[in-house]
Amino acid sequence: MAYQPPAQIRIETTRGASANDGVKMMVYGLAGTGKTRLCATAPRPIIMSAEKGLLSLNDVDIPFIRINSLADLTAARQFIQNDNRFWTACLDSASEIAEVCLQDLKANNRDPRKAYGDMAQDVLNEVRAWRDMRQKHVLFIMKQGRIKDEQTGVLMNGPLMPGQQLDQHMPYMFDECFQLVVQNFNGNLQSALRTQRDNQNEAKDRSGRLDMWEPPNLTHIINKITAPRN
Q1: Taking a C-beta distance cutoff of 8 angstroms, is the pair 131, 174 a contact?
Q2: What's the CA gap between 13 and 9, in Å, rounded?
Q3: Is the peptide bond before 93 cis (omega within 30 degrees of 0)?
Q4: How far apart are CA 141 and CA 52, in angstroms?
């Protein structure tokens, strides 16, 4: 007689296991590359914003929620998770939102320096909660900075967060990490998303479906990743 697992053990299959999870993406880049504008290309987006940098979206009608504290961010997540009007949650920029949350926590702590590690962990836990949202696409827009590869010790361009603890964790938390750049393609300056890393820039595509360079259109990318597999 074959061994039967305990009742609380549920064996599942990897085929289609993430079909209802949505695509979780991180995009980083230098100022002026069009990161905020990227939100307008996502299906049914809503933006979480902690900065006054939405001017590039002045010609489109996208709802947004202003984030001034960690409590605001948690409340926004719980609201969006249960609202079917929105398919994509965009945090613009996650780097600035994390800084605002940390400053809010510091202001309400008697010894901010001693508690910094705990506060960073609180923000990291909230980031995980956004990453794990069911049936929603999530986009974290990040500033570009120099980060250290933990395996090689080499400094690379990558997504920047306040504090070493957040910096080290962020590149590993998302299946899709893209760098938005403006490059000269055949004599024309064009924006493009790098989806694979090289020796100077962090990027990854765990779906295995994207080309090295993709157009800066999130609906196109999401459709490409979620298309039925043969």
Answers
A1: yes
A2: 13
A3: yes
A4: 14
User: From CA 92, how far away is CA 180, in angstroms rounded?
Assistant: 14
Give dist(CA 97, CA 170) in Å, integer. 14
Query: Is residue 129 within 8 Å of 77, Cβ to Cβ?
Result: yes
Q: Which amino acid is at 49?
A: S
**Which DSSP symbol is given to 140?**
E
State mean pLDDT over 21-37: 92
Kindly tell me if the per-residue pLDDT of 17 is higher than 90: no
What are 173-227's pLDDT values in tens digits? 899 999 999 987 778 888 999 999 999 999 999 999 999 999 999 999 999 999 9
The pLDDT, as a whole number, for residue 113 is: 62
Sketch the domain layout of the chain as residue ranges.
Answer: 24-225
Residues 24-225: name the CATH superfamily.
P-loop containing nucleotide triphosphate hydrolases (3.40.50.300)
| Two structure tokens written together for 183 | 């490059």
Going by their DSSP bridges, the two strands 155-160 and 137-148 should be labelled as antiparallel
177's CB contacts (< 8 A; 6+ apart) are: 25, 26, 27, 28, 159, 171, 202, 203, 204
Angle subtended at Cα 36 by Cα 116 and Cα 29, rounded to the nearest 5 degrees = 65
Instruction: State the DSSP H helix or E strand holding residue 39, giving kind and residue range, or none if neither.
Output: none
